């Protein structure tokens, strides 16, 4: 039971480390390159501007799902007003709401009342996906936006330290198992020697007794 608990703890720890590192990596890449990182068949990024406030705050992580242009187009036609991600002509990923159809393309605008209608239209060529979720991730996104390289460096160092600790723990367990095995072998060898010595002494004693009987 204890072994199962240990394995479960290690797996959960490893899973959490992967999730945390993935979020930091995704956020840092988004902050540095305004890009999207794909993990587990979903895209992840950090919103850098206030153009979608109050719906999406600066520093929020967004989860992006890939959809076809036809699907996005139908959603706009049905007045569903999806929040889409597209890549602008400058190579920047834009997260805005689809508000209308214009000449077969999708017209976009941020939810912020001060945000103007986008000058670029969404087409089949530049559509990235649809936003299906968002989270502040305990403020991690805002830290990344404000601190950038420092946060990434700290996260990498923390990940390395935790990894070293886990490896050290594994080596410690292996060492303990080897010591237990050696101790068991030592005890078995000691018991064998003692048993053989007892047998030898018994035989010597028997021989001495036989000699005494012969003498008498």
TrEMBL record:
Just give the chief location class.
Answer: membrane
Q: Name one GO molecular function term.
A: signal peptidase activity
Entry-linked InterPro entries? LexA/Signal_pep-like_sf, Peptidase_S26, Peptidase_S26B
Q: What is its EC number?
A: 3.4.21.89
- Places the protein is found: Membrane
Keywords tagged on the record:
Coiled coil, Membrane, Transmembrane, Transmembrane helix
Q: What's an example GO BP annotation here?
A: signal peptide processing
Query: Which chain regions cross the lipid bilayer?
Result: 150-171
GO annotation, cellular component aspect = membrane
Which Gene3D superfamilies does its entry note?
Answer: Umud Fragment, subunit A
Its recorded name reads Signal peptidase I
Organism in which the protein naturally occurs? Acholeplasma brassicae
């Amino acid at each position: 039971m204890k072994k199962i608990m240990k394995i479960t703890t290690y797996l959960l720890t490893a899973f959490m480390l992967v999730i945390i590192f993935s979020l930091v990596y995704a956020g840092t890449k988004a902050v540095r390159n305004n890009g999207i990182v794909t993990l587990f068949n979903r895209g992840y990024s950090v919103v850098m501007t206030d153009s979608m406030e109050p719906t999406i705050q600066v520093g929020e992580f967004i989860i992006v799902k890939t959809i076809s242009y036809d699907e996005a187009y139908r959603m706009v036609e049905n007045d569903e007003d999806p929040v889409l991600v597209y890549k602008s002509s400058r190579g920047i990923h834009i997260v805005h709401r689809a508000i209308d159809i214009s000449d077969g393309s999708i017209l976009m605008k941020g939810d912020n009342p001060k945000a103007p209608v986008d000058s670029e239209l969404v087409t089949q060529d530049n559509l990235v996906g649809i936003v299906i979720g968002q989270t502040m991730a305990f403020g991690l996104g805002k830290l990344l936006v404000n601190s950038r390289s420092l946060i990434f460096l700290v996260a990498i160092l923390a990940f390395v330290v935790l990894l070293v600790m886990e490896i050290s723990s594994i080596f410690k367990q292996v060492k303990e198992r080897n010591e237990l095995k050696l101790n068991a072998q030592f005890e078995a060898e000691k018991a064998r020697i003692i048993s053989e010595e007892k047998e030898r002494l018994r035989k010597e004693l028997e021989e001495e007794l036989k000699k005494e009987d012969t003498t008498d």
